[in-house]
Amino acid sequence: MKFWIKTAALACTVAVIGCSPVAADTGGKSAAQPAAAAPATHPVSGLPVVTLTVTGAKGPHAFRVEVARTSEEQAQGLMFRTAMGADEGMIFPMDPPRDAAFWMKNTVIPLDIIFIGPDRRILNIAAGAVPYDLTPLPSDGVASGVLELNGGRAAELGIKPGDKVAW
To answer: Which end of the chain lies in a sparser environment, N or C, as judged by fewer CB atoms within 10 Å?
Structure first.
């Protein structure tokens, strides 16, 4: 009887070791590695969402922004949106950098339009751009990106020309 108990115990031990997530050929690392996280996408636009940080006198502030890369995505921008979170926005990368001007055609919510130079510093801010206004709001020089935030958010956070932007 003792023989069968020892044999059963040994068989259970072997079975447990054989089913362990640690495989001998992985150098002791778990064979069940977590899958790489899929890039975040915005539920409305389907655009990729990245973290963008503005660093100024008050320190860094992080935003989650949609990235409008193509000319079609940039032409659509935030048109027809009725709401946006306090720390959300949209970045329009410009490659090559160029003089830029934005307007508010079909844009429902007021925006701060922040023009970013090739050195990734803020050139100027068109604060509180008025919904539906077709007046062009230009950059004060060559822009490598334009960031749109909720109207008044830049002033609220103390974001100013010269602040550093990273995305």
So the answer is: N
